[in-house]
Amino acid sequence: MLLYLRLFKESFSFAINALTNNKLRTFLSLLGVTIGIFSIIAVLAAVDSLDRNIQDQLSGLDKNTIYLTKFSFGPTEVPRWQRDNFPQTEYDDFDYIRRTVPDIAASAYVIFGNSETVRYESETIAGVSVNPASNEIYEIENIKIEDGRFYTESESINGSPVVVLGYSIAENLFGNVSPLGKQIRIYGRKLTVIGVMKKMGAGFGGNPDDKAYLPANFVRRFQNGGVDGIPGAILIKPEKGVDIGAFEDVLKQKFRAYRGLKAGDPDNFFINKISGFTDAIDGIIGTMNIMGWIISGFSLLVGGFGIANIMFVSVKERTNLIGIQKSLGAKNRFILLQFLFEATILAIIGGLVGLVFVWLTSIIVNLSEITGDFKFVLSAGNMFLGFILSTIIGLISGVIPAISASRLDPVEAIRTGI
């Protein structure tokens, strides 16, 4: 054990000498490892951070939540012209579903709203995400209210002119004044503010702070329905513990019967699940990880060649010393391990520098306002991965030079060094 500790100490000393004796050569050689480790860990950390951010945003939604609508949220074999002729999902469809389909914990009717301009006296905010929906959306999307309340079932059914504002919208329109009871204009019509949502921050699917919720039946008064009318959807949250496959079958059967579809007729609607959506996101994130590994792998390859180059030069420069060591009884294994340790130490130094750069980048990104509320997280697992990769690069890059050094003939080595 003491022998290996001494070997490690000497190898570390040789590695430091290699770094200091020819700084430019060492810098260029280690730059590849540094960039490679930085690229891979930065990409993995960014993808992990994105995945964590998305999961946090979707955590309030039940993954079994279903969107029943004319649109498909994923790839489909139904041709575009056929989908365009599907009937819109309307409020009457929603009313039928919630009355007849069993095992529904909550359901809501939503209209896919556009960005609208919101006005209060002289203040105007453009591009607000307006979300017309029935009152059950409060439970399905786990909306949190900071001030006031959400609209009631009676207000939802009657289409009362009330609105619940996101935190940023309320702050920009009213400042420090309470918005409750104030009248604003959306769609050119007056609505009374009855609630303000808690500050949530930017996330997947938009920033809840920049949204406004109002009863869908209020919008249905002045916007047309039908095939060419406003697109809508039915959100359905099944009861916990229910067989989702059987639930979907019942839902499809009843809705086909309601729309008068005969056996053999294709569906003129889509049943989209949040779980399928999250699976698609996981697939995209997995692809991003693979692409990051492939691109960053080239940098690591260059870094490995750089380490190998340093080690071949080191063997050449120390040929005489190797001959002397072997003539004094040093075994081939000792020479082999000496150069392997040196290559590994050099690679680890380059990798640690790369990790420091990633750490500094994460701090800068989190302190800046460029990414808003998105947090760049450098996990201990990714840092450990960077350390392991550096070690592997050093071992692979140093193995051939180390083998060549261990096989040198001591007499020839001494003679070459003279």
Automatic annotation (TrEMBL):
Keywords: Cell membrane, Membrane, Transmembrane, Transmembrane helix. One of its GO terms (cellular component) is plasma membrane. The chain crosses the membrane at residues 27-47, 290-313, 334-364, 384-405. Residues 293-410 form the ABC3 transporter permease C-terminal domain. Pfam families: FtsX (PF02687), MacB_PCD (PF12704). Its main location: membrane. The keyword Cell membrane applies. Residues 26-253 form the MacB-like periplasmic core domain. It is a multi-pass membrane protein. One of its GO terms (molecular function) is transmembrane transporter activity. It is found in: Cell membrane. The keyword RNA-binding does not apply. It comes from the Bacteria. Belongs to the ABC-4 integral membrane protein family. This is Putative ABC transport system permease protein.
